[in-house]
Design goal:
Layout lengths: L1 H20 L4 H16 L7 H25 L1 H19 L5 H26 L7 H20 L27 H7 L1 H14 L1 H13 L6 H11 L7 H16 L1 H8 L6 H10 L4 H27 L2 H12 L5 H19 L13 H43 L1
Helix pairs in contact: 2-17, 3-17, 5-6, 5-8, 6-14, 8-14, 9-13, 11-12, 11-13, 12-14, 15-16
Length: about 400
């Protein structure tokens, strides 16, 4: 850490010397910012653990202080919120006939909040993004699809589901389940997850809008890259630059329907749409309304259909049979998949006392470990990102001090 401080002092001295010699140019400033950005990216736990943890805690303290000041300036809203919370708490604990409705609303609220939160984590990312569709929503839709085809019904309990989905005790006709019935069964959680991803797209919009309105020099790399892209729009040659320009032009020229089109398909460049809308001062409800409709309605139905069709009973059986046809290793790979599907059928029919072994399948074990690894990586990325944010504060402070000398 002392070495980092010495490097900063040496660069500061060299910078001031360049200013006095009259050799300080825009190109040297750009080069220095590039070096500073590379230095920040090296502040990660596996390279500089002590520095990263120190910067993370300092950034956490600064953010806590900033949020406390913001809440203090909005005391009336905070007091109103606390009063409403007190009324809801009293309603929750006072006995009466209203308790059945309270319990129902409680279950629905936490179920929706769970999926909205996962959607926000997937979209806002804090530098990496937790792929909650692949880890949570996709497997949930797949399990409901497999259960629906096995039970020939979707009349198992309404969400939030219990620990296990159990087939209802009713006579059903083979093949009576429809695609629309499965879509309707998972619509609430899918739409809530989509709404969460729409909320997670707001930070780039607000950042770009605030920078444009204040006229201040933006402090975000993505925004700086966006402005550089606008300056060199005519000379863009590579595919990535052309794709970014296509998104920017679509949003800027078509407006609501351009944003809707970008939000309705899997689009890794959608952050650029948020920055574009903020930069060109697109009204908030135009941006958020189009994003919400695109992600929570259109895109989510496309993703649901893909998962449901993929995990339909006949397609799953064909996939398992194709695995068995692989030369040499096919039968050994096919066996755990067959055991897993058979175990799921037994669970759905609640025949836990049957003769089939109830041991943990290696597929479920691998998935659980994958989830743990992804969550741990996401937490590490948050720590690294906040530490790099604090390093950026130090560098910006250094720039300000040099300008005043």
């Amino acid at each position: 850490m002392a070495e980092n401080g010495t490097d900063c002092d040496q660069r500061r001295g060299g910078m001031i010397k360049e200013q006095h010699n009259g050799n300080f140019t825009d190109s040297s400033l750009s080069e220095r910012k590039r070096r500073d950005r590379e230095e920040r990216l090296n502040i990660v736990l596996w390279r500089q653990p002590l520095v990263t943890l120190q910067y993370f805690f300092l950034e956490t303290l600064i953010n806590s202080k900033e949020w406390t000041i913001k809440l203090w300036h909005r005391r009336s809203i905070l007091v109103s919120f606390l009063l409403m919370l007190a009324v809801l708490t009293a309603t929750y604990y006072i006995e009466g006939t209203h308790q059945q409705y309270v319990r129902y609303m409680e279950k629905k609220f936490f179920w929706c909040a769970y999926w909205v939160g996962l959607g926000i984590l997937s979209s806002v990312g804090l530098g990496t993004g937790l792929h909650t569709f692949l880890l949570y929503l996709g497997p949930h839709i797949a399990s409901v699809t497999l259960a629906a085809y096995e039970c020939n019904s979707v009349n198992f309990p309404e969400p939030p589901y219990p620990d296990q989905i159990i087939c209802p005790d009713e006579e059903t006709t083979e093949g009576s389940i429809s695609l629309w019935a499965i879509i309707s069964k998972v619509r609430l959680e899918a739409c809530m997850w989509g709404a969460g991803t729409a909320i997670g797209e707001l930070p780039p919009y607000f950042m770009a809008r605030a920078a444009r309105l204040s006229g201040a020099e933006p402090d975000d790399e993505e925004y700086q890259e966006f402005e550089e892209m606008l300056e060199h729009a005519e000379t863009a040659q590579d595919f990535a630059s052309r794709a970014k320009l296509a998104v920017q032009n679509l949003v800027q020229k078509i407006g609501f329907f351009g944003i809707l089109a970008c939000a309705s398909i899997p689009n890794p460049l959608f952050d650029l749409a948020g920055i574009t809308c903020g930069h060109f001062l697109v009204p908030f409800w135009t941006f958020f309304g189009a994003t919400l409709i695109g992600k929570a309605v259109i895109k989510m139905h496309i993703q649901k259909l893909f998962v449901i069709i993929t995990f339909s009973k006949h397609i799953v059986e064909q996939m398992v049979s194709l695995i068995g046809a692989i030369p040499s290793i096919g039968p050994s790979l096919q066996k755990p998949f067959q055991e897993y599907l058979e175990a799921q059928r037994i669970k759905l029919h609640h025949r836990s006392d049957s003769g089939v072994p109830q041991g943990e399948n290696w597929l479920s074990w691998m998935f659980e470990k994958l989830v743990i690894v992804m969550v741990c990586y996401f937490i590490l990325s948050i720590i690294n990102s906040m530490a790099q944010s604090y390093a950026k504060r130090l560098q910006q402070k250094m720039y300000s001090e040099e300008k005043t000398k």
